[in-house]
Design a protein that fits this description.
Largest sheet: 3 strands, antiparallel
Structural class: alpha+beta
Number of domains: 1
Number of helices: 2
Strand order of the largest sheet: 1-2-3
Amino acid sequence: MDFSGERWTGVLAPLNDPAYFARVMVDSEAGTIAWPGGIDLAPEPLYEQAKAHPLLAA
């Protein structure tokens, strides 16, 4: 997914820092992506966005 156009606010505001955003990891227990400090994104909206905007092969 392409998050480059996102402007994160509130508890997600640290994601606006490219260095912090790059620290993303997969949380296999929650089935989603997460960052240090307990920030994560709910897997259901991520899945819906991925279905709505599939990546095309280069």
